[in-house]
Amino acid sequence: MWPILCIGAFIVISITHWVHRWRNPKCNGKLPPGSMGLPLLGETLQFFAPNTSSAIPPFIKDRMKRYGPVFRTSLVGRPVVISTDPEINHFIFQQEGHLVQSWYPDTFTEIFGRQNVGSLHGFVYKYLKNLVLSLFGPESLKDKLLPQVELTAHKTLGLWASQGTVELKEATANMIFDLTAKKLISYEYDPAKSSENLRENFVAFIHGLISFPLDIPGTAYHKCLQGRKKAMKMLKDMLEERRLMPERCQEDFFDFVLIELKKEGTILTEEMALDLMFVLLFASFETTSLALTLAIKLLTDHPHVLKELTEEHETIVRNRENEDAKLTWKEYKSMTYTAQVINEVVRLANIVPGIFRKAMRDIEIKGYTIPAGWAIMVCPPAVHLNPAKYENPLEFNPGRWKGMESNGASKHFMAFGGGMRFCVGTEFTKVQMAVFLHCLVTQYRWTAVKGGNIVRTPGLSFPDGFHIRVSKKNK
Ligand code: HEM
């Protein structure tokens, strides 16, 4: 009897001690206020709970009210400090490689690969970043990508006009995926040649990425992992096939990789190259298609903005010697109001609801200590919807960006991140959005048919899609 009682008491004391330790983590200073939630689960379920508003996510807003702009919590088994404070966010971005390091939950690494650019640091990271910039940076955009983007937009819009209704999120994602896949690996899906479509493996990806990490059949996360496996196999097979082909000069990213892998002392590995291709394919189409879908939804709901935008683009066409000439870089750079519309769309879209870092040592900030090893989540929606900075923050008002069109990143605008890890695809996104809008408003009109409702988990999604009917304008 006594031994059983003793064992029982020992178990109760151990669990109580463990729960107490969970709720009151060790810290060599003062932790930010907050709750660590339930043991192991933390506050993960509340964080991922769907909501249909475009305001600051309820999870964040409630805690800002209760604890102030910086608070602690636990997400997917990790202690996290969440910052909604523009000064702290800015400081964190500037500390990359010093006090903090880019870090994402293990689930992200599982999906994007251990050698993906977001998980690499130091000179290997710099090497990969330069590689991406050579593909999608300003020089490449100006000389090669701008005409390709315009051609793709024209072709796509022509196709849509010949169809009944189009579900915009899926249709823009397909358009962008095709363009990026062509640029990176010269991939074009041909059902006559292969039953496997690379694009199909990326379905519902953003949903799975920012969802509860439960790897069992039926969950979004599981679907995501299965998609990654199949996509990686296809990419690997394609690279193998290319290796067996006669050497050709550099036409796409695969050619570059094969040349680079042959060099003595190269730091590029096949795994790194494949993870990079996967990340770029995902990052380019999933994010920009959400931004474009929201842009068209907002333009549909705000005819006065659409009118001003259309006027800007019609003026560009009118001022040309030949109206059918191709868009030039100078014309793109002259799209001032369009740039304001794009900034306003990405401010409201909050496509990336959290940017993660890991504290490399104890960080003292505004009277609090963030312990070494903890995750830090910078929260862009809280910054973008701050009424002290953006009057009527939920209003779609592109004019608020007048004079600040070329805003890269600032303490109050971090849709594309900030500091050393600032998004390398920013200008590519802006070119794609501006050129697509140019082709759309100068040559086509559209009407909304159904859908357009938004859900955030906390990543943005359109659960019923956004269905529109497109027709050619009568000139
Ligand atoms: C609306 C469109 C986009 C949004 C909102 C967006 C947002 C972001 C954000 C917030 C980051 C910073 C992540 C961090 O600091 O940890 C980032 C990084 C990154 N983005 Fe984008 N992005 C977009 C489009 C693109 C495109 C089109 C590409 C591909 C060409 C791309 C490729 C990348 C890459 C490779 C990184 C990692 C950079 C690094 O670690 O230094 N993004 N993006």
The ligands bound in this entry are: protoporphyrin IX containing FE
List the total number of helices. 17
Average pLDDT reading: 89
Tell me the CATH architecture: Orthogonal Bundle
What structural class do you assign from the helix and strand content?
Answer: alpha+beta
Largest sheet: 5 strands, mixed
Rg from Cα: 24 Å
Number of strands: 12
Main location: membrane
Cofactor: heme
Family: Belongs to the cytochrome P450 family.
Pfam family, one: p450
Question: Topology of this protein?
Answer:
Blueprint: H1 2-23, H2 44-48, H3 58-67, E1 70-75, E2 78-83, H4 86-94, E3 100-102, H5 106-112, H6 122-136, H7 138-162, E4 165-167, H8 168-185, H9 205-209, H10 220-244, H11 253-262, H12 270-301, H13 303-318, H14 329-333, H15 336-349, E5 355-359, E6 363-365, E7 368-370, E8 375-378, H16 380-384, H17 426-443, E9 444-451, E10 455-456, E11 460-461, E12 466-472
Parallel strand pairs: 2-8
Antiparallel strand pairs: 1-2, 3-5, 4-12, 5-8, 6-7, 9-12, 10-11
Helix pairs in contact: 6-7, 7-17, 8-12, 10-12, 12-15, 13-15
Protoporphyrin IX containing FE binds next to helix 6, helix 12 and helix 17.
Protein name: Cytochrome P450
Organism: Aquilegia coerulea (Rocky mountain columbine)
Pfam families: p450
